[in-house]
Specification:
By secondary structure, the chain is of the alpha+beta class. The chain has a single domain, classed as OB fold (Dihydrolipoamide Acetyltransferase, E2P), CATH 2.40.50.120. It is built from three helices and six strands. Strands 1, 2, 3, 4, 5 and 6 form a six-stranded antiparallel beta sheet that branches. α2 crosses α3. Keywords: Secreted, Signal. This is Tissue inhibitor of metalloproteinase. It is found in: Secreted.
Amino acid sequence: MKNSVLFVLLVFFSISNAIACTCVFEKQSLHKKVKIAYATSKVVFTGNVIAKKNIPDQTDNHLKLDLIRYTFEVINPFKNTEGNETIDVISLADGGMCGYTFVVGKTYLVYARTSESYSDHSEIKTSYTTGLCDRNNTIRNVNKRELRKLRYLKKRKQ
């Protein structure tokens, strides 16, 4: 009996730990990936993270989804933003649930979309969200060809 209980617990914890974020990317050129990410994002920009605020889940569901609101100072706008403005972007706090962790003081390339998913949180006024599967990256790790492609897409859109 004791072995059966241990086995059930082991299986339960193995399954619960296996539920994690999985990003599925097709094998495509960088050009195509950037073009798709640009098209599916509401805003694209490089910016400095100037603030971070944890927002605990206030819903009654059993799956707690704590959020983080990051405030960015836009440096280089590529889509639907202006330079020198601030933008709030929401991400899940847990990377296992596809949340992306930004660090205050660092500069990032950010792709964000609009979402009403978190409208039940009274503290959230923004509709921009992003996650681990979006093309976010620290600016120092972004491929120069990606930045060139974004400049081209911005110019083409105007």
